[in-house]
Structure formats: C-alpha cells, structure tokens
Design brief:
There is one protein chain. The longest helix has 14 residues, at 2-15. The chain has one domain (24-176). It is 8% helix and 60% strand. Strands 1, 2, 3, 4, 5, 6, 7, 8, 9 and 10 form a 10-stranded antiparallel β-sheet that branches. With 182 residues, the protein is mainly beta. The chain is built from 1 helix and 10 strands; from the N terminus they run H-E-E-E-E-E-E-E-E-E-E.
Length: 182
C-alpha cells in the first residue's frame, strides 16, 4: 500500500510540473569516474528515479552548469545469455578536455576531494538557481554552490543527461567479463 501511495503522489507531482518526468531508468546503475571535474555552478536535491517496472531508486540529483572534466569513464555491467557484458565509454585524457553543459547526474553517491565556492546548504529545493532548470519540490532539502572542483571523482548513477557533450578521444567498448571504471 505505501508503494502504491508513493507512485500516486509522484504521478500527481509530475502532472503539476513540480518534478520532471524525463525518462524511466533501465534498472541498471552504472559507474562514472574522472580525474578532475570543474564547473561554474552546482545544484542538488534528493529525488526518486523509477524503472519501467515501477521500482524506485533514491538519488541525489546533481545539476552541474558548464562541466569540464580532465577525462571520463562510464561503465555498466549487463547480464546477457553469453555472460556478464561490460559496456564502457572513455574519453579525454591525452585527447583533451571533456565538456558538457547543464549536466544532470542522478547518483547514489559521489566520492572525491571537493572544493565548493559560495556554498548554500539546506536551501529550499524550489529556490535553487545556480544551474538553470535544476530545482526540486517546495520544502525539500537542497544545496548549491557557485563553483566547484572535485578531484578523483567516483560515482554510481542511474542516469545522466546533458547538452552539448564534447567527448574528445571517445572510445566505446563492449566485452564479456570486462573491467569497469573502478
């Protein structure tokens, strides 16, 4: 019964436009890593991503303005009839910087050595204004910072979206039993 009630509330909130209904997540989380991430804006709040089967995944939505990454690795393990396959995308490094505008990551965690400029922690999620379009529900916990730098980025995520991705030296590999990012 609580799950049915929660789904009903989520549908109502989406219908009112307070929460974006972008897409259903696949049900497979993935890893993202980078040596260094910088941005001129960060906004974050808690939300729930939903799989097609209706299962909820609590995440911290991280909105990152104009992101610059020294390199990037994204990997996911997928079970197939042939065995566990690793899908892996890498870019940057010696090829040059990776960039994305209005990057939004729905993550379970974020690990690294961080520096936040002009941080506001505990701000109402509806009033977040550092990253255009990234704000949550009224009365919900939010945080934001004017600029950020994170070294040694590691995250488990359910989704990532953004505009104008520039992936210099991009490589996509699919392998049975392959190595993930970390």
């Amino acid at each position: 019964m609580p799950a049915v009630l929660a789904v009903g509330i989520m549908a109502d909130v989406m219908a009112e436009g307070a929460l974006a209904a972008s897409f259903a997540v696949s049900g497979t989380s993935f890893q993202v890593s980078s040596g260094k991430l910088t941005s001129q804006g960060l906004a974050s709040y808690v939300q729930t991503d939903r799989s097609v089967d209706g299962k909820g995944h609590p995440v911290a939505l991280l909105g990152i303005g104009d992101a610059k990454l020294s390199d990037i690795c994204q990997s996911a393990q997928v079970k197939t009839p042939l065995g566990t396959v690793v899908f892996k995308l890498t870019a940057g490094g010696d090829a040059g910087e990776v960039t994305a505008s209005n990057l939004v990551i729905d993550g379970e965690d974020l690990v690294g050595d961080a520096r936040f400029g002009t941080a506001e922690i505990g701000r109402d999620a509806t009033t977040l204004d550092q990253v255009p379009g990234v704000h949550g529900e009224k009365g919900k916990f939010g945080l934001q910072a004017g600029d950020i730098e994170v070294a040694g980025v590691r995250s488990h995520a359910w989704s990532a979206t953004g505009g104008n991705f520039r992936l210099k030296g991009m490589r996509v590999a699919v392998s049975i039993g392959g190595k993930q990012c970390f």
